[in-house]
Design goal:
This protein is mostly beta strands and 509 residues long. 2% of the residues lie in helices and 38% in strands.
C-alpha cells in the first residue's frame, strides 16, 4: 500500500480546528511554477490556457481560476482560507477549458498548510508541470533543462517511498552485456522537490531483497543475493533511519532471496518463501519485531516460491497469494495470518484464486474513503515458460480473506511493478511476457480506476521508452510515478535502463 505523506503530528493537532469561516484572513500562496523539461515534449508546448485549482479539507468545492498562458500571481492564483493539506494544482490546456480545450499538462504541489494570523507569511509552493502520460527523465528543479541521473544502473533493487516523499533506492545488481551481474551495496535518496539523487549509506551487497517501511519511518532491508557467481546470500538485515542515517544490523535465522515481505500496522515484518543458495525453496517463515529488534521463527512453513504478500486494509491480517508449489505448479492458494505475540497465527478461513499464478503483483485499489480492495495482477500460470507456462491477463480482487472475485482484464505479463497513487488508482508498469517458450521484458503501462458498485476501468498509457523487468515504481507526492532501473532483454541483448523516468497520469476527475 502506498504510504501517506504526513506532516508533523504536533502541527496537525494545533491546526486541526482550522476551518474556513467568515472573517478568516485569506492568503494567496507564492507559486514557483516550473514549466521546462530536460527531454520530451515541453510542458507548455502549444498551451494557451491554465487552470489554477486548489483543494483540501474544508473546501467544499475547489477554488479555481482560469487564465491565459501569460498568468500573473496576483490575478490568477486563488486566495485561500486557513487550513491543512491544501494542494495547488495547475492544469495546462490547448484551447479554452470547458470549451473543448484539451488538457495536455498537469502539476501539483505537495500538501501545504495555510496558517491563521495577520503576521503569517504567504506559503511558498512549487509545482512542476509535466506532460500527461509522457515518460521523461527526471530533471533538476534548480535547472529544469538538465536531466538528473541515478549514480548507478540497478535491477532487482528496492525503492521505498518515505513519509516525507523522498524515495530510498537500495542495492540491486548492474546488468552487464556479457551477462555478469555485480551486486551493489549502495543506496541513493531521491528528493522529488529538487529532482536530485543523493548518495546514502551502504547497506551490504544485496539484490532480490526486500525493503519494508515501518510505521515510525524507518526502513527494514532483509536478505537478498550477495553475489551471483557463485550464488551467495546476504545473511544480514539492516534497519535504517533515513532521517538520521542511523543503522542497525541483524542476522537472519534463514538466509533467502526472491522472497516476499509485508509489515503490519504495529511494525512487525513478515518474511515468507524465497530461495536458498542452491535454488531450493526457503520454506520457513520468519518475522521481525522492530520494537524489540528480535527475529521470530515460529516453525511454520510455506512450501511455495514466487508468492506475493498483501496486507489487508485493517493493517493486521496478511495474505499469502499464489506461488509455485512442490509439484512445480502455479498454486491457487490464498491463506491469511497475523502476528500473535512472538509467533504467527494462521486464520482458519482461506480461499483460492480463480487462476493459479506465480510472480503476481498486489496493490490496493481505492482511497481510504472508498472501501479500498486488494487487487492481484499478472503472474505466470505455471512454473516454467519453457514448458508452456503463460502470462496471466486476468486480475482478481481479494474479497476479504474468504473469497475472491473477478477483476478487470489487463495485459498478460508476470513480475509487473504496480503502485497505488495518492488518489487510489493503480499504475501497472512493465514486467515479463513470453513468446515461443522464451521470456522478454515488456513496455506496457496501464492505469486502473475504481468505480463504486461497478467494475474498474483500465486505460492504456504510453509505452515506456524501454521495456523493463526487475525495475521499481514509486508514487510521488504530486501524483506522478518514478520508475528506476530494471533490465531490457526484449531484443535478445541485455541492456540496463540507466535513466530514472517520471510520468504524470491523467487526473482522476
Amino acid at each position: 500500500m502506498a504510504p501517506r505523506f504526513v506532516r508533523s503530528t504536533l502541527l496537525a493537532a494545533a491546526l486541526a480546528s482550522l476551518t474556513p469561516a467568515c472573517g478568516d484572513k485569506e492568503v494567496r500562496p507564492s507559486l514557483d511554477l516550473l514549466t521546462a523539461s530536460c527531454a520530451g515534449t515541453q510542458p507548455l508546448a502549444g498551451v494557451t490556457h491554465l487552470r489554477f485549482r486548489v483543494t483540501g479539507p474544508g473546501l467544499d468545492t475547489p477554488r479555481e481560476r482560469v487564465s491565459t498562458v501569460n498568468w500573473t500571481w496576483m490575478e490568477d492564483v486563488p486566495t485561500l482560507p486557513p487550513g491543512l493539506e491544501r494542494v495547488l494544482e495547475v492544469r495546462a490546456y490547448v484551447g479554452v477549458p470547458d470549451q473543448g480545450g484539451q488538457l495536455v499538462s498537469l502539476g501539483r504541489s505537495v500538501p501545504f498548510t495555510v496558517l491563521d494570523g495577520e503576521d503569517e507569511p504567504n506559503p511558498r509552493v512549487r509545482v512542476v508541470l509535466r506532460r500527461l502520460g509522457e515518460f521523461v527523465p527526471v530533471n533538476l528543479a534548480s535547472d529544469p533543462r538538465t536531466c538528473s541521473l541515478p549514480a548507478e544502473a540497478r535491477a532487482a533493487h528496492t525503492a521505498t517511498t518515505l513519509p516525507d516523499g523522498r524515495v530510498l533506492i537500495a542495492g540491486g545488481y548492474r546488468p552487464e552485456a556479457n551477462g555478469t551481474r555485480p551486486v551493489s551495496a549502495t543506496t541513493e535518496l531521491f528528493n522529488p522537490a529538487e529532482g536530485t539523487f543523493i548518495p546514502g549509506p551502504d547497506v551490504g551487497a544485496r539484490a532480490f531483497h526486500t525493503a519494508s517501511l515501518l510505521p515510525d519511518g524507518r526502513v527494514f532491508l532483509a536478505g537478498g543475493v550477495e553475489s551471483f557467481a557463485p550464488v551467495a546470500l546476504q545473511s544480514t538485515a539492516r534497519l535504517l533511519d533515513p532521517t538520521t542515517g542511523a543503522r542497525s544490523e541483524f542476522t537472519h535465522k534463514v538466509a533467502r532471496y526472491q522472497h516476499a515481505a509485508a509489515v503490519d500496522a504495529e511494525g512487525h515484518v513478515a518474511l515468507v518463501s524465497g530461495r536458498a543458495a542452491d535454488g531450493s525453496t526457503a520454506s520457513e517463515m520468519e518475522g521481525f519485531d522492530a520494537t524489540t529488534g528480535l527475529f521470530v521463527s515460529p516453525g511454520m512453513q510455506v512450501h511455495r516460491t514466487d508468492v506475493a504478500l498483501a496486507v489487508r486494509p485493517d493493517g493486521m491480517n496478511i495474505q499469502i497469494v499464489g506461488g509455485v508449489d512442490s509439484l512445480k505448479k502455479a498454486d491457487t492458494d490464498v491463506s491469511a495470518f497475523r502476528f500473535s505475540t512472538d509467533s504467527f497465527m494462521f486464520l482458519a478461513a482461506g480461499t483460492d484464486l480463480r487462476v493459479g499464478r506465480q510472480g503476481a503483483a498486489v496493490a490496493m485499489l481505492g482511497r481510504a474513503d472508498e472501501s479500498p480492495e486488494l487487487l492481484v495482477m499478472g503472474g505466470f500460470d505455471g512454473a516454467d515458460p519453457a514448458e508452456d507456462a503463460r502470462p496471466v491477463g486476468s486480475s482478481e480482487f481479494l474479497d476479504g480473506v474468504i473469497s475472491v472475485r473477478e477483476g478487470p482484464a489487463l495485459m498478460p505479463r508476470s513480475n509487473p511493478c504496480a503502485v497505488t497513487l495518492p488518489d487510489g488508482r493503480i499504475v501497472v508498469l512493465g514486467g515479463r511476457g513470453t513468446s515461443i517458450g522464451t521470456t522478454y521484458a515488456v513496455p506496457w503501462v496501464e492505469l486502473i480506476t475504481p468505480h463504486a458498485g461497478a467494475q474498474p476501468t483500465v486505460l492504456g498509457l504510453s509505452l515506456m521508452p524501454q521495456p523493463r523487468v526487475w525495475h521499481t515504481c514509486s508514487a510521488l507526492p504530486d501524483g506522478s510515478v518514478l520508475v528506476v532501473g530494471g533490465v531490457d532483454d526484449s531484443t535478445g541483448e541485455i541492456r540496463a535502463n540507466t535513466e530514472a523516468l517520471v510520468v504524470m497520469p491523467p487526473p482522476r476527475d
